[in-house]
């Protein structure tokens, strides 16, 4: 939140945080969204 573009993105709803995990053995990609 200390960067102006992050603060602005949170305020106007245009910033989205997405995480993921790729399992190289199985080839599965899991995505996490809040």
UniProtKB/TrEMBL annotation:
Gene3D superfamilies: Carbonic anhydrase (3.40.1050.10). One of its GO terms (molecular function) is zinc ion binding. Coiled coil: none annotated. It comes from the Eukaryota. SUPFAM superfamilies: beta-carbonic anhydrase, cab (SSF53056). This is Carbonic anhydrase.
């Amino acid at each position: 939140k200390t960067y102006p573009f992050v603060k602005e993105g949170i305020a106007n709803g245009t910033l989205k945080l997405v995480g993921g995990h790729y399992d190289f053995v199985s080839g599965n990609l899991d995505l996490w969204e809040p």
